[in-house]
Amino acid sequence: MNIYEMPELPIKDELISVLEHNQTIRIERIISTGQQSNWYDQQEYEYVILLEGRAQLVFEDDRKVTLVKGDTLLIQPHQKHRVAYTSTDPPCIWLCVFY
User: Fold this and answer.
1) Largest alpha-carbon pair distance within the chain?
2) Per the count of CB atoms within 10 A, which of 15, 42, 81, 87 is most buried?
3) pTM for the complete prediction?
């Protein structure tokens, strides 16, 4: 797999590909093209790398984090957050490590 390989665009829903997983870690590639999310309240840590595009996350305390290509972010367990914005041109390519 090439991490930058794209499906035919536009896509209605985010495309989530599990690249690797075991009992302690899950690595996902996510492609977003303008999608937003509901609130997440995860039990795991999530280490995020935005490989392409622009995005904005909003946290429960109203903190907003804008990410651009190359930015990383560590989301703590039970740190409620949602995706408020993802770019369409270019699409967002996320690499997310859950542990």
Assistant:
1) 38
2) 81
3) 0.94
pLDDT, one tens digit per residue, over 7-56 is 999 899 999 999 999 999 999 999 999 999 999 999 999 999 999 999 99
Report which secondary-structure segment, H or E, holds 67: strand 64-68
Across 50-75, average pLDDT = 98
Burial 5-23 (b: 16+ CB within 10 A, else e): eeeeeeeeebbeeeeeeee
Tell me the C-alpha distance between 18 and 96, whole Å.
10
Which 3 state secondary structure label does DSSP give 51?
strand
